[in-house]
Amino acid sequence: MNCALIIPAWAPEDIFSTKTAGSQINYWQPLGTLYVAAALQQAGHEVRFYNGAFMAHDEIMRQVQEYQPEFVGLYSTAFGWGKAKMTAAAIKQSLPGVFLTVGGPYPVALQEKCIEDCPDIDSVVTGEGEITVVEMLARLGSGADLDGVEGLAYRQGNEIKKNPPRPLITDLDALPFPARELLGEAGKYIPPPATYKRKPVAVIMTARGCNRNCLYCFQIDKYRKSGIRYRSVENVMAEIEFVLGQGYREIKFIDDTLAADYNRAMTIAKEIKKRNFDFTWFASAVVNQVDRPLLKAFKDAGCWAILFGAESGVQKDLNAIRKGITPNQIRKAVKAAKEVGLTVYTPFLFGIPGQTYEDGLKTIEFALELDPDMANFHAITPFPGTELYDNIEKYGTMSEDLSDYTYQGAAFVPYTMTREQISELRQLALKKFYSRPKFLWRRFLALRSLNDLLAAWQGLKSLFWLQAEKNLFKRSR
């Protein structure tokens, strides 16, 4: 069957301020879509991929009409739902006989509600798409109905039906590697400036799921019944070798925390070093899961940077989001990472339930005290499917405008703060952190390549607008 997988067209300005987009924009490899593509290929289907990050809507439609697929899969986030609906309508108008499915975090969270909201959608994949989509197409190809296909909600005549959820994939080694060859020019897929060393950059996930229970985080295994499902270390090494053979020179490990299993993380680092792979890499970890020996092993294996989700410097705010860490643990992890020579990134959140403006100011001071190499300051977002979203009346108010659901717009406002205060705190934090002479001098001394220079230039432009424009992050209503 001819299959088209599509990420609807979008622009950086849909997410970021036009004044700072240059230093914030990222083009991640869409790993979930590429896993589904690989599974479809393995089942004998032909697959083409259209990425709206690099293609206008009209160009996507032109190529899709030329291809004439029998099956179309659309990916959607919360903020991209409007564009997904528009794309679905255009596809159904030009190809009325096509079977159209949507997947991604927003449809997975709301499921049959998305079918109700969009008359052009035939089904929603509600989880474990690599198996669900292949089984669904086998049914469609044989003329059978979709009753009993686990992990699927679908339209049947005037009815919307929902099948039981699909059990989580436990043997992740059985999955084919993501079909990165469908991406086209690999060098286009880059993280934000200053967050990578070499191009092209591949993303790899060594495990699925999380054993944490943060208030604002969406996981398919919502109630953490299965915790984390790990790929074998040997399977991870095989994928590293595979992507290096495709020409990639840097890898971002996008596990929620690479250090959830300390011994496994140490083994991964040692195996990378033992095999003498030529690549640089970046990982994320929870601060109470690392120590100096593990971070040193990461560094020795080619890791150049690590991200710690600090989120706040105020204990009651960390407790409110169920982060399970303390400010002292954050201090200890950042210090250890710096001591072994890793670049440290720490994101922070404003608008946490119960957080006051004064708490936000304390978090800014905490960020300055930590002095990581890079920091970001986001607005907490009540994505559908999270406990924050499901219990919004308990915590505050929620925007009905899905374009706010990006960590940039203040989609959620706690009862203890205003939307304007959240935007003000974000701008104040970025301005204070990045205008420090100490930071600017350190960045100057770290310039080593053209990529460093370009990142510094984008950062300086953003810093100018942070200083020059009073309400940079305030969204018009």
Describe the structure.
- The protein has helices at residues 21-24, 31-42, 57-67, 81-94, 105-110, 112-117, 129-142, 233-245, 262-274, 292-300, 315-320, 327-339, 357-370, 387-390, 392-395, 419-434, 437-445, 450-468; strands spanning 2-7, 46-51, 71-75, 99-103, 123-125, 152-156, 159-162, 201-204, 207-209, 228-230, 250-253, 280-285, 303-308, 343-350, 374-379, 396-398, 412-414.
- The protein is of the alpha/beta class and 477 residues long.
- The protein has two domains: 2-162, 3-Layer(aba) Sandwich (Rossmann fold), CATH 3.40.50; 190-468, tm_1862 like domain (pyruvate-formate lyase- activating enzyme).
- The strands form four sheets. It has a seven-stranded mixed β-sheet, sandwiched between helices.
- The radius of gyration is 22 Å and the shape is globular.
